[in-house]
């Protein structure tokens, strides 16, 4: 391992796609990859530990880190701030450990722009109907809240054009296997087979009309 830098793998998805389950399983199964520990202003949930699941900070503390240019990326999500600090990734990567950054879509866009070495994986729901059913939840939420979630999901789907890979989360075990195989292929440098199978363009084509994915704009098309 001497001299090898770790690789940052970014996993993102439209809300309601089940990315946490997939990411946890990938980190459990692959001993060479670990979660990057983000900062957040949201309250700690039962079972969470400061410095393990997140660095839990006040809004002021978060703003200070932004001002000090401490974040590689940061974004607001559901009324709270989330961000990946340089410190959270540079240490492990410098020591040759691979990282999994589980972030919402705006953060993934920033990482695309700022980290040449980042490999981006987008998880997709199998169909719009399925995503809509998940976002509707138990049917107890007000109609305008559901409509807002669906609007956000449309915008999030459009981000696919910035990702290297796309994996359809039709069955969770398949999605876990897919992400693990992408990580291993990137690590070894032999990516031809995973690109053929999970490369963004191939997956978009295979999906056909199952998801309302808008066409890429000229800039992202020429980028790749
Ligand atoms: P939760 O509050 O459920 O832990 O996370 C809410 C959302 O924030 C999830 O989509 C999660 O992936 C995202 N998230 C967690 N950490 C970060 C981060 O450092 N940056 C960004 N942009 N999003 C994050």
* CATH uppermost class of the domain at 8-36 and 98-222: Alpha Beta
Radius of gyration: 17 Å
Report the sheet with the most strands, covering strand number, pairing sense and barrel closure: 5 strands, parallel
Identify the CATH homologous superfamily of the domain at 8-36 and 98-222: P-loop containing nucleotide triphosphate hydrolases
CATH architecture descriptor name of the domain at 8-36 and 98-222: 3-Layer(aba) Sandwich
Total number of helices: 10
The best one-word shape is: globular
The total beta strand count reads 9
The helix/strand series, from N terminus to C terminus, equals EHEEEHEEHEHEHHEHHHH
End-to-end C-alpha gap: 31 Å
Bound molecules: guanosine-5'-monophosphate
Strand content: 15-25%
Task: Write a structural description.
By secondary structure, the protein is α/β, with parallel strands linked by helices. The protein has a domain at 8-36 and 98-222: 3-Layer(aba) Sandwich (Rossmann fold), CATH 3.40.50. It contains ten helices and nine strands. The chain has helices spanning 19-29, 59-67, 86-94, 105-114, 128-136, 143-158, 172-188, 192-198, 200-207, 218-223; strands at residues 8-12, 33-35, 39-40, 55-56, 71-77, 80-85, 98-102, 119-124, 165-168. The protein has a five-stranded parallel β-sheet, sandwiched between helices. Strand 5 and strand 6 form a beta hairpin. Helix 1 crosses helix 7 (172-188) and helix 7 (172-188) packs antiparallel against helix 8. The protein is globular, with a radius of gyration of 17 Å. 34% of the residues are buried. Guanosine-5'-monophosphate is lined by residues 38, 42, 73, 75, 77, 82-84, 102-104, 106-107. Residues 38, 42, 73, 75, 77, 82-84, 102-104, 106-107 line the site of guanosine-5'-monophosphate (5GP).
């Amino acid at each position: 391992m001497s001299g090898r830098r770790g690789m940052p793998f970014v996993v993102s998805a439209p809300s309601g796609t089940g990315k946490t389950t997939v990411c946890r399983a990938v980190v459990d199964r692959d001993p060479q990859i670990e979660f990057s520990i983000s900062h957040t202003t949201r309250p700690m949930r039962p079972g969470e530990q400061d410095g393990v699941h997140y660095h839990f900070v006040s809004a002021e503390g978060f703003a200070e880190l932004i001002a000090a240019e401490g974040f590689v990326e940061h974004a607001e999500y559901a009324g709270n701030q989330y961000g990946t600090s340089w410190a959270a990734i540079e240490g492990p990567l410098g020591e040759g450990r691979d990282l999994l950054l589980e972030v919402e879509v705006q953060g993934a866009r920033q990482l695309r722009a700022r980290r040449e070495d980042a490999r981006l994986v987008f998880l997709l729901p199998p169909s719009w109907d399925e995503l809509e059913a998940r976002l509707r939840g138990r049917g107890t939420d007000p109609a305008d809240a559901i409509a807002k979630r669906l609007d956000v999901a449309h915008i999030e789907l459009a981000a696919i054009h910035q990702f290297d890979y796309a994996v359809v989360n039709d069955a969770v075990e398949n999605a876990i296997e897919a992400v693990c195989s992408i990580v291993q292929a990137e690590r070894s440098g032999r990516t031809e087979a995973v690109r053929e199978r999970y490369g963004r363009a191939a997956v978009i084509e295979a999906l056909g009309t199952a998801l309302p994915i808008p066409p890429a704009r000229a800039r992202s098309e020429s980028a790749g």
